[in-house]
TrEMBL record:
Pfam family, one: CMD
Name the record gives this protein: Carboxymuconolactone decarboxylase family protein
Domain Carboxymuconolactone decarboxylase-like residues, every copy: 40-120
InterPro entries for the chain: AhpD-like (IPR029032), CMD-like (IPR003779)
Domain of life: Bacteria
Native organism: Psychroserpens luteus
Lineage: Bacteria, Pseudomonadati, Bacteroidota, Flavobacteriia, Flavobacteriales
């Protein structure tokens, strides 16, 4: 059971309207947002930041942004965010071969050198202590411009917030996210853990 109970989607009309964004992204409003709306200023600020971070202004695709989110969430161990990120990557058109082999992005032929640089950046930036170094910078600049790097770090930073929020909260994971997690991550030991509504 989550640390704090999510409120009804009807609780705050402004949050509800903004949260329509997630119907495209995930197919449902996340329980994390329903919990944040206990302080509506937080839920609204979060959704607006999410929309800004996920907007595509360069060559970083929606699918790659969600794979960046997955690598970040995998690094921190947040099962809730791992399942959400892989589900959103699927919904935004990530190639089936990439979804099936996300764990092997460094060596699998489904990933380009540009994608590997972005995903390695996500992994390094999500570690404690932070692992971004001159080599990561060099590889990024071989494939991406500065605006695109800002977009990537926006995703990594957004999921840093979400990983802390959802793992500390033990947010109950939604059925659709469980299905995506099991489908794409199950062969590598994905399990819902504290997010199943009864283990917190």
């Amino acid at each position: 059971m989550a640390l704090v109970t999510p409120l009804s989607a009807e609780h705050d009309p402004e949050t509800k309207k903004l949260a329509e964004f997630f119907n495209e992204t995930l197919g449902f409003c996340p329980n994390s947002v329903l919990t944040m709306q206990r302080r509506p200023a937080i839920s609204k600020a979060f959704i607006n930041l999410n929309k800004a971070v996920m907007a595509n202004e360069g060559r970083v695709t929606s699918a790659l942004k969600r794979m960046i989110a997955w690598v970040s969430s995998n690094s921190t161990g947040c099962r809730y965010c791992q399942a959400h990120a892989i589900r959103a990557a699927e919904r935004y058109g990530a190639e089936q071969e990439q979804l099936d082999n996300i764990w092997e992005y460094r060596t699998h032929s489904a990933f380009s050198d540009a994608e590997r640089a972005a995903l390695d950046f996500s992994l390094a930036a999500s570690q404690v202590p932070n692992g971004v170094d001159a080599d990561i910078k060099k590889r990024l600049y071989e494939h991406w411009d500065e605006g695109e790097i800002v977009e990537m770090l926006g995703v990594i930073s957004l999921f840093g917030y979400l990983n802390r929020w959802n793992d500390s909260m033990g947010t109950d994971i939604e059925e659709g996210a469980v299905e995506s997690g099991n489908q794409y991550l199950g062969k590598h030991g994905f399990e819902v853990g504290k997010h199943d509504g009864s283990k917190y």
